[in-house]
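Table S5 (text form). Sequence records supplied for joint modeling of the two-component complex.
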Amino acid sequence: MTARRVVRAVVFVALFVYALISLYPFLWMISGAFKGRSEILEGGFLPRAFTLDTLTQTWGRLHFFDYFLNSLKVTGLTVLGVLVVYSLASYAFAVLDFPGRRILFWFFVALLFVPGITMLLPVVILEKQLGVLGTHIGLVLPFVNGTAPLTVLLLTNAYGSIPRELREAARSDGASEVRIFWSVYLPLARPAHVTVAVLTAVPTWNEYVLTRVSISDPSRYTLPLGLESLISSEVPRYNEVMAASLIIVIPVIVLFLFLQRYFVNGLVGAIKG
Amino acid sequence: MSSLAVKDRPGRLRKEPSGGRSPRRWPGWLTGWAFVFPAVALFAVMGAYTIGSGLALSFAKWNGFTPTWNWVGVQNYLDLLYADPVLAPELRRAGWNTLQVMIAVPLLTVVISLPLAVALNSVRRLRGVLRSVYFLPYVTTGVAIYFAWRYVLEPDGAINTLLRSLGLGTLSQPQGFLGNPSTALPTLILVLVWSSVPVATLLYLSGLQAIDPHLFEAAQIDGAAPRHVLRRVIWPLLRPITAVIVLLGVRDTLHGFQIFLVMTNGGPGGHTDALALMAYRLSFFKGLAQTLGLASALGWLLFAGAVLLTLVNARMLRRVQ
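The corresponding structure-token record, covering 594 residues in total, follows.
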């Protein structure tokens, strides 16, 4: 019995240690964000002179409020685009019958294996020609396209698991295809849509690579670019950097805490599907 | 995916009432095409065209400004692989780093997340809270968290302070963990493991919960020691999940370079350069030099590598199942 107790204690200690490792950079992020300019250079964990100035200054004077709105706009439009475009396509893949269905479906899924870097340069060149490089729409279009594999996989699975009898019943009541999609499939597959929305929103919110090479006008910066502009100054003020990081991370954590099961279901479903 | 195999033409199951004017009188395929049109159109512009022009560009030299491309055939590929005295060694070093990351990250991820999932599965209290905490690194992965890591890894950062206060001062890095050429890459590997453990743990946990609890009881009644249960019962049942985790890890290291860009930008002295980062540099940071074709060629080499590794992995996956 005591041996068992020891094992349990060891298990709990190990679990707590890894929890601490998981939280480690966040804890320092929070600690740094509440320190002033002089204290950030000292080592201590708890801020001695706890201050909100760093956060408020970063939010206001360093324009993080504007970057926040830009990020919100880009993320919102991307999520909207993904939901509209791929719910339609996935509905067709799951329940409609048309020539080219299987080929197109597997084609979209196979795009998962095209590295982002292979597409990055041609996308930038194309957008320059189209004149959308450096605009928010120029970010949204490739972001939407980039989510295709995972989204199509998740939504096609979700629509495919809805009993076909429902569709046949609606058809015999004279409902059009659009009506069936809108009134039967969309409501029944709502959890899958939330999953797709969160799995799209989080990487879009954090996206940095394409954004960095395409946006040059500071008034269009998203949060990650704003953050980067802080660190590229000669002597980075880590209290401001950490405050900015906190501003980026908090919405994601809040989203995660409220919609946790959608993250979990989505990942398990996407990988097993 | 079974739904894809279902064959029933719209309108065949049920006799249509006469005198229809509804859209279902349309040929079925037209409706189907209408539904996929936005996705296909977007892909045609953002995907097909860019993939095509990228492939073409990989056979040319161009700096992004001159009106014409100079066609050079496969020269870009040859330059990268062995012909160019500067690029080829650079590629080899970046490739070696990428390979190390590609092997170490999935391996360490499995080594950490499997015991973690088993431990988490064995406790009832706090399981939900701990799972949320473990999952945080995944949802927040990105620039912000990489900067936080940079902050704690600085020469005067939290990790050095921690090591010194624990009396492990010899392990501390006066140049910072990212500033020392010999610790920079291992440090990045550990940060990558840190951000890939959440998904792996979650997958293992869902796999463990799917295992019939009677199996454990049977093993216990037979007097099997816990480590035998782990090795003989749990590990074989979780092998498909392990294969998926390895596949994801390999894919992520080949595709992803944000962490390299943000945390070290390949430094110090190229010790943390990666293939995708090299392609990024050739794409956007060579000014007027004609490197865009080289960048495209490297992108396609990466693509070929990804496909190859996926096929190998899928084969191994089939064998273990």
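Note: Chain A touches chain B through 107 residues (CB under 8 Å).
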